[in-house]
UniProtKB/TrEMBL annotation:
This is DUF4445 domain-containing protein. It comes from Aminithiophilus ramosus. One of its GO terms (molecular function) is iron-sulfur cluster binding. It comes from the Bacteria. InterPro entries: 2Fe-2S_ferredoxin-like_sf, 2Fe-2S_ferredoxin-type, Beta-grasp_dom_sf, Corrinoid_activation_enz, Raco-like_middle, Raco-like_middle_sf, RACo_C.
Length: 613
C-alpha cells in the first residue's frame, strides 16, 4: 500500500467471520484482497474482460464503467468486478459470490458398517486408580471390567488425559477405543457418538462429508474452493509454485489444510455436534494435492518419470496436519496409483468394485482428469491435465454448484432457457451448466464445430440470434432474462471448455488404443467428479466427447471417489485392505507422452457429435 496516499478501511466478510484492513483510496478490490491473502479468481488477468472476479459489495466505491455494466447488467450496484471497482472510502466486500462453498447432495441412508471406533464413558475417583502401577493401567483395568480389553500403554492416550484428570476430584471422560487400542480421551458429553469424515481434495474443489461412525450414516456434506487456486488453476502451476521456495510450499500446504479444517468445523457446527468427536478422517486426492497437503515437495512430479515420492502414506494424526480435531485423531490417505493418478481414483475403483463385472471405463472428471480401464482383474490407469473448466474455473462467469449456479439448459420457445440451482437469480455457470449450455448452442447453430460463436445473422432462431453481442471486437452470448438475471458466455469460455474436452477425449482414446480396444468394446463408462451436479450424457455426445457408439452406456455417479472413500471409512480394516489390494493391481501409464496424443488432442478440440468407434 502506498503510504503517501489517503487511506481507508475495507471490511472483508468471509463465512461467519470478518476482517477489517487498511487500504489506499484508488486501489482495486482485487489488489487489496490478494495482498491480504484472499482467493479471488480472475481468469482474464484482472483486465475487466471476463467478469470472473464478481463480488458482493457495499460502501464508497468508484462508479461502474460501461464495460463493467455490460458484464453485470442491472446488478452492478451490489455486485462489482474486483479488478474494476476502486476504493473511494470505507467499503465492505463479501467473499463467496460466486462459489466459495455450499452444501452437497448426499445419501443419508445407513450403510454397511464395521464399527472400529467406540466411545466408552468413564467416571471415577482418583483413589480408584491408586492400586495400579500407572494411571493408564488403572483406566485399562476399568475398561476391562466394562468388557473392553485394550492395550493401555499408548502415549497419545496418556497425553490426551490433560487437565481432565485432577487428583482429589471425580473425573468423567470418554475413552476412545479403536480396534482394541486406547486411541485417546475426550471430555465427557452425554450421548456423544464417534464421528468420522471423508475429504476429497480436488485441484479446484474440496468436498467433505461428516459421518456417524456408529450408525453408518452421512450426516452432512459441504463443498469449498481450493484456495491454492490463487497460485494457479492446474496441477502444473501448483507444482511450479511449490518448487519456487520453501515459503511458497508452506503457503500451499497451509491454505488447503485450513480449508479442509474449515469445512470440518462447519459440518459439525451445522449439525450441533462437537468437531472434537471426529476421530477418523479419510482423505482422497490426486498426487499433487496429496503431496501439497502433506507438505511434501512435488519435485518428482514435475519431471520425468513423474513419480510420487510415495504411494502409500502411513496413518497420521490430526495434529501432524493442523486439522482442528483431537491431536491424536487418525488421518489417512487412500493410496495413490502412480504418476498423476491419485487416491481419488482408488476411491472410484472401490465404488466400481461393488458393481457387476463389466468392461468398464472409469473417468474422474476434473481439473486433473483421471481415467481407469477395468477389464476382468486388469486395471490400467492414466491422467491428463484437463484444466479447471469442468469445475467452473477459468470461465468468466464460472462458479461451483451453489444456489444461483446455472446447472443446465433447455430449448423453449425457440430460445435457450436456463436451469438454476435453487431457482433464484442467475449468479454464474457451474461445470455441468457450461457443458449443457455450449452443447445446446452447438446443436442450434450458435456455435460452430470449431467453437466459434456465429454471427447473429447466421443463426436461424431470432430470439437466440439477438443474444449474440460484440465487445471490443469479441463476440459473446448473453444468457438469462430480465427476471432471472443475466450473464455472458465469452469466446474464451468456450475455448476453455474445448481444451478440457480435448484433453480428456484424447486421453480416453489413447488408453483404449494402448489396450487394443475401441469404443465398441466398452460396456459402460462411469463419470465421476466432485464439481456438483450430474453430467448429462446427451450433452457430452453432442459435443463429441464420446461417439454415438456410447449412447446408452454412459452414466454419472456423482462424487464416486468420495463414495468409495466412505465405503472404506465405514468398512473397517477389511475394507482398508481391499482398497490397498485394488491399488496394487493398477498399472499406471503415461497417456500424454504417447506419440499420437497431440494429434488426437487437436482433433478432439472440435465440438460436434461424431460416429465411429
Amino acid at each position: 500500500m502506498d503510504k503517501s496516499s489517503r487511506s481507508c478501511r475495507l471490511t472483508i466478510r468471509f463465512g461467519p467471520s470478518e476482517r477489517t484492513v487498511e487500504a489506499s483510496v484508488g486501489e482495486t478490490l482485487l489488489d487489496v484482497l490478494r495482498r491480504e491473502g484472499f482467493f479471488v479468481e480472475a481468469p482474464c488477468g484482472g483486465r475487466g474482460l471476463c467478469g470472473g472476479c464478481r463480488l458482493r459489495v457495499s460502501g464508497d466505491l468508484s462508479p461502474a464503467d460501461e464495460g463493467e455494466r455490460a458484464l453485470l447488467g442491472s446488478r452492478s450496484a451490489e455486485i462489482r468486478l474486483a479488478c474494476r471497482a476502486r476504493l473511494a472510502g470505507e467499503a465492505t466486500v463479501t467473499l463467496g459470490v460466486p462459489g466459495g462453498g455450499g452444501t452437497v447432495p448426499f445419501d443419508g441412508e445407513a450403510r454397511k458398517t464395521v464399527q472400529e471406533t467406540v466411545f466408552v464413558p468413564l467416571s471415577f475417583d482418583w483413589d480408584e486408580l491408586a492400586p495400579s502401577a500407572s494411571v493408564l493401567e488403572g483406566i485399562g483395568s476399568m475398561l476391562a471390567r466394562a468388557g473392553h480389553a485394550v492395550e493401555a500403554g499408548n502415549l497419545d492416550g496418556a497425553a490426551s488425559l490433560g487437565d481432565g484428570l485432577r487428583p482429589g476430584w471425580r473425573t468423567s471422560l470418554l475413552a476412545v477405543l479403536r480396534g482394541g487400542v486406547l486411541a485417546g480421551f475426550l471430555p465427557h458429553r452425554e450421548g456423544a457418538r464417534p464421528l468420522g469424515a471423508v475429504c476429497d481434495i480436488g485441484t479446484t474443489t474440496l468436498v467433505a462429508y461428516l459421518v456417524d461412525l456408529e450408525r453408518g450414516r452421512v450426516l452432512a456434506a459441504l463443498r469449498g474452493r481450493n484456495p491454492q487456486a490463487l497460485y494457479g488453476g492446474d496441477v502444473l502451476s501448483r507444482i511450479a509454485r511449490g518448487l519456487a521456495d520453501a515459503a511458497s510450499l508452506r503457503a500451499l500446504t497451509d491454505s488447503v489444510r485450513a480449508e479442509a479444517g474449515r469445512l470440518l468445523v462447519a459440518l459439525a457446527d451445522g449439525e450441533g455436534l462437537d468437531v472434537g468427536h471426529c476421530v477418523d478422517v479419510l482423505l482422497v486426492g490426486n498426487a499433487v494435492m496429496h503431496h501439497l497437503f502433506l507438505g511434501l515437495s512435488p519435485v518428482t512430479l514435475g519431471r520425468l518419470p513423474f513419480a510420487p515420492l510415495l504411494r502409500r502414506t502411513p496413518p497420521l494424526r490430526a495434529g501432524d496436519v493442523a486439522l482442528p480435531l483431537a491431536p491424536w485423531a487418525r488421518v489417512r490417505f487412500l493410496p495413490l496409483l502412480g504418476r498423476f493418478v491419485g487416491s481419488d481414483m482408488t476411491g472410484l475403483l472401490v465404488r466400481a468394485a461393488a458393481l457387476p463385472p463389466k468392461r468398464r471405463l472409469l473417468v474422474d472428471v476434473g481439473t486433473n482428469g483421471e481415467i481407469a480401464l477395468v477389464v476382468g482383474e486388469r486395471i490400467v490407469v492414466g491422467s491428463t491435465a484437463a484444466g479447471p473448466a469442468f469445475e467452473g474455473g477459468n470461465v468468466s462467469s464460472g462458479m461451483v454448484a451453489l444456489p444461483g449456479a446455472v446447472d443446465g439448459a433447455l430449448w423453449r420457445d425457440d430460445d435457450i432457457a436456463l436451469s438454476v440451482i435453487g431457482g433464484g437469480t442467475v449468479e454464474g455457470l457451474c461445470g455441468p451448466g457450461l457443458i449443457d449450455v455450449v452443447a445446446l448452442l452447438v446443436r442450434k447453430g450458435a456455435v460452430d464445430g470449431s467453437g466459434r460463436i456465429a454471427d447473429g445473422e447466421a443463426i436461424p432462431f431470432p430470439r437466440l440470434a439477438r443474444r449474440v453481442e460484440s465487445l471490443e471486437g469479441r463476440r459473446r452470448i448473453r444468457l438469462g432474462s430480465a427476471e432471472q438475471g443475466t450473464l455472458v458466455l465469452t469466446q474464451q469460455d468456450i475455448r476453455q471448455l474445448q481444451l478440457a474436452k480435448g484433453a480428456l477425449q484424447a486421453a480416453m482414446e489413447e488408453l483404449l488404443d494402448r489396450e487394443g480396444l475401441t469404443w465398441n468394446d466398452v460396456d459402460e463408462c462411469l463419470l465421476a467428479g466432485a464439481f456438483g451436479g450430474a453430467l448429462r450424457p446427451e450433452s457430452l455426445l453432442a459435443l463429441g466427447l464420446f461417439p454415438e457408439a456410447m449412447r446408452g452406456r454412459i452414466a454419472s455417479v456423482g462424487n464416486g471417489a468420495g463414495e468409495g472413500a466412505l465405503t472404506v471409512l465405514l468398512g473397517g480394516p477389511e475394507a482398508w485392505d481391499e482398497a490397498q489390494a485394488l491399488a496394487d493391481r493398477a498399472e499406471s501409464v503415461d497417456l500424454e507422452g504417447r506419440g499420437t496424443f497431440q494429434d488426437r488432442f487437436i482433433e478432439a478440440l472440435r465440438l460436434e457429435s461424431r460416429g465411429g468407434a
